[in-house]
Every structure is written in structure tokens, then in C-alpha cells.
């Protein structure tokens, strides 16, 4: 069976996330900020009587935020904790059409840190992101 990918828009680009890591896709409402939280943590939200930590993927990657507020989010669970990864848009679930390829050398910054590999789907080569890296956020050298 081919690997399933969730296609999202982030930084104006079509990006892939391993669909096996995704618990659900939601439209977020009611974000509560966390005082003194890491800059890439947007706050907390509730989903089905559960509190989720909301990750601002733009800040995690060190890229410019979109002009409009992101309300779409991908819910993933890491080490028993639920997270909502805020993205610009969620498109579709598709099958990868080839084995993963290495990251290009020219990929820089947060994209390189969070990139797992390149994958082909629907005739296009897409960056496959590592959700754990998005949750962890930029390291100190990147943020400086």
C-alpha cells in the first residue's frame, strides 16, 4: 500500500504531512494565549473536551505569516500530548507515487530543520514535513 499524505498549504506552498500522524483536521475557534510561552506556541484551544497546544507553523519555520488568520489545523499526538498545527489551508489526502527522495541542498532555515524528505504526489514533488520538528520549534541558533 502506498503512503498516504495530507496536503496542506504553508508559506504559500503545497506541503505534505504523513497522514498516519494526523488524528483529525479541524477549524479552530477560541485561542487562549500562554504567558511567557515559546514564540512558536500560539496558545491553547479546546477540542472535544480536550486541551490542545496550538503551534504556529509559520513561527516554527521562521517564515512570514499570511495576511489572513489561519484557522485550519492538523491535530497530532506526540508523546501522549495533543497538538494543533495551524496551517493556511488543508487540501486533500493523496497517495505518494514514488519512494521518498533526499532533501535538496538549497533548502534553508526552518524548512531544512522540519523537512523529512521530498515525496512525489499528483505529479509534483512536495516537501514532507516532520511534525515533531514543527512542535519543537526553532532552535536557539535559528531564532538568533
Question: Describe it for me?
Answer:
By secondary structure, this protein is mainly β. It is 15% helix and 47% strand. It has 4 helices and 10 strands, in the order βββββαβββαββαα. Strands 8-1-2-10-9 form a 5-stranded mixed β-sheet. It has a 5-stranded mixed β-sheet with strand order 3-6-7-5-4. It is globular.
**How would you characterize the largest beta sheet?**
5 strands, mixed
CATH topology: OB fold (Dihydrolipoamide Acetyltransferase, E2P)
Largest beta sheet: strand ordering: 8-1-2-10-9
CATH class: Mainly Beta
Report the principal-axis shape: globular
Structural class: mainly beta
* Continuous helix count: 4
Distance between the termini: 43 Å
Count of domain modules:
1
Relative strand content = over 45%
What radius of gyration results from the CA coordinates?
A: 15 Å
What is the strand tally?
10
Low-confidence parts, pLDDT < 50 over ≥5 residues?
A: none
Order of helices and strands: EEEEEHEEEHEEHH
At CATH's second level, what is the architecture?
Beta Barrel
Helix fraction, binned, reads 10-25%
Question: Could you give me the name of the CATH homologous superfamily?
Answer: CheA-289, Domain 4
- The overall pLDDT average reads 91
